[in-house]
Design brief:
There is one protein chain. The chain has about 350 residues and is α/β, with parallel strands linked by helices. It has two domains: about 15-160 and about 295-335, Rossmann fold (3-Layer(aba) Sandwich), CATH 3.40.50; about 215-275, no CATH class. It is about 40% helix and about 25% strand. It has helices at about 15-20, 25-35, 40-50, 65-70, 80-90, 95-100, 135-145, 165, 215-235, 235-275, 300-305, and strands at about 50-55, 75-80, 100-105, 120-125, 150-160, 175-180, 185-195, 200-210, 285-295, 310-315, 330-335. The strands form two sheets. A seven-stranded mixed sheet has the order 3-2-1-4-5-11-10, with helices on both faces. Helix 9 (about 215-235) runs antiparallel to helix 10. The model is unreliable at about 1-10, about 225-275 and about 340-345 (pLDDT under 50).
Length: about 350
C-alpha cells in the first residue's frame, strides 16, 4: 500500500517580502530607530545579570552592541545578510575586547541549532511578529528550549494590537513632512495600513517619493530682494538707485559674514555626511517597502506559550516593569520552560 506524500507548502511571497524588505537597508533602519533606548537599557540590564545571551533577530546591533560594551558575551542570530554585514562593519570600529564578545550567525530562528545553551534568550522589538503561523511559533519555541540552560529564561517584546491601526482605510495614506533619507536623498513619505483579519497580519506599505530640495534661506532672501528692487524701480528711479547703493554697501560690509556663514553651512554638511555610513543618493523614482506584522493578542500569546510547555513568569506593559493595561502599546514577556508540567497533562 502506497502512502501519499504530503505536499510541501508553497512559500507565501507576500509574507516573505514583509519579513525581509524592511531590513535590507540597515543604514535607514538605524537612522529610523536610533531614538529607541528604553528597550536597550532593559535588555542590557538583564544580560549583564547573566553574563551571556543569545539574541534572536540581532539585526545590525542596536541592542547587541550596548550589551557587548557592558561586558556581556553576545551570540546573535539573524536571517538578513545586509544587517549582519552592517553589524560586522560597525564592530570593526569597536575595541578588540568588544569585538571578541560578539559571535554572529545567519539563519532562521525556527530552524537554527547552534549547539550551545544560554542563561538568557532575547527576541527584541517585534522580531517575534514575523512568526506568522502557529507552526512558526511552535518551531521557534522548540529552538528556544534547545538553547536555554536549565534555569534559563526567554524575554521578548511585541506590540499590543491597536484597533485604530487595524481599522485604517488602506486607501487613505498617512503622511509625514519630507525628510532626508540617509541612502535615498530627500523624500516624501506615506504609508498605507491593510489588516488581514483572517491571518491576523497587518501589512504596511511604505512609499518613498522623490522630494524637491528645500530652498535655502539665502536663495529666498535673494529672490525677495530682487522683487523689492523691481517695485522700487517702478515707483521711483532715484529711490531705487539709492536702494541699490545702500545694498551694495551692505553687501560689502556683510561679505565677510556671508562667507563665514557659507563655510559654516558647508562644514555642517560635511559633518553630517561623515556621520553617515553610506553616501546618500537622490532617488528619481518612487519605491515601496513592505512590512508584515502578525498581531498577537495577550491571551492568544499566553495560550501559545502554555501549550508549548512555557510558563509566564512576568508580563509588563512597558520597559519600566509597569503592568499590562488597556493603554499599553507593548507587551514585555518573561517566560521559561514549565518544569512541573507532566507528560500528557496540561495544567
Amino acid at each position: 500500500m502506497k502512502h501519499a506524500v504530503p505536499k510541501t507548502a508553497r512559500p507565501d511571497l507576500e509574507l516573505d517580502a514583509g519579513a525581509r524588505a524592511h531590513f535590507e537597508d540597515p543604514v535607514y533602519y538605524s537612522d529610523t530607530y536610533d531614538w529607541r533606548d528604553e528597550d536597550v537599557v532593559y535588555y542590557r540590564a538583564l544580560a549583564e545579570a547573566r553574563g551571556s545571551v543569545l539574541e534572536h533577530g540581532i539585526g545590525n546591533g542596536r541592542v547587541a552592541l550596548p550589551m557587548a560594551r557592558a561586558g556581556v558575551e553576545v551570540t546573535g542570530l539573524d536571517h538578513t545578510r545586509a544587517m549582519l554585514d552592517h553589524l560586522r562593519a560597525l564592530l570593526k570600529r569597536e575595541p578588540p575586547a568588544v569585538r571578541r564578545r560578539v559571535e554572529l550567525h545567519q539563519g532562521d530562528v525556527r530552524t537554527a541549532r547552534l549547539g550551545k545553551r544560554f542563561p538568557l534568550v532575547i527576541c527584541p522589538f517585534n522580531a517575534a511578529l514575523h512568526l506568522y503561523t502557529r507552526q512558526d511559533v511552535e518551531a521557534w519555541l522548540a529552538r528556544v528550549r534547545e538553547h536555554l540552560e536549565p534555569r534559563g529564561e526567554l524575554v521578548f517584546d511585541i506590540s499590543m494590537p491597536i484597533p485604530a491601526d487595524l481599522a485604517r482605510d488602506p486607501s487613505v495614506p498617512y503622511r509625514i513632512p519630507p525628510f532626508e533619507h540617509p541612502t535615498a536623498g530627500r523624500v516624501a513619505y506615506r504609508e498605507h495600513f491593510d489588516y488581514d483579519r483572517v491571518r491576523q497580519v497587518l501589512f504596511v506599505s511604505m512609499f518613498f517619493e522623490p522630494a524637491p530640495r528645500r530652498r535655502s534661506a539665502k536663495s529666498a532672501r535673494g529672490k525677495a530682494t530682487r522683487r523689492a528692487e523691481t517695485v522700487a524701480q517702478t515707483r521711483n528711479g532715484e529711490a531705487a538707485a539709492q536702494t541699490r547703493r545702500a545694498e551694495t554697501a551692505a553687501q560689502t560690509r556683510k561679505g565677510e559674514a556671508a562667507t563665514k556663514t557659507r563655510k559654516g553651512e558647508a562644514a555642517a554638511e560635511n559633518r553630517e555626511s561623515a556621520a553617515r555610513v553610506a553616501t546618500p543618493r537622490q532617488i528619481t523614482e518612487t519605491f515601496m517597502t513592505p512590512l508584515a506584522h502578525r498581531q498577537f493578542y495577550p491571551q492568544e500569546m499566553e495560550a501559545l506559550l502554555h501549550y508549548n510547555g512555557f510558563e509566564v513568569r512576568e508580563l509588563y506593559g512597558d520597559f519600566e516593569r509597569g503592568p499590562l493595561v488597556q493603554t499599553s502599546d507593548v507587551m514585555v514577556w518573561h517566560v521559561a520552560p514549565r518544569r512541573a508540567a507532566r507528560r500528557g497533562t496540561t495544567r
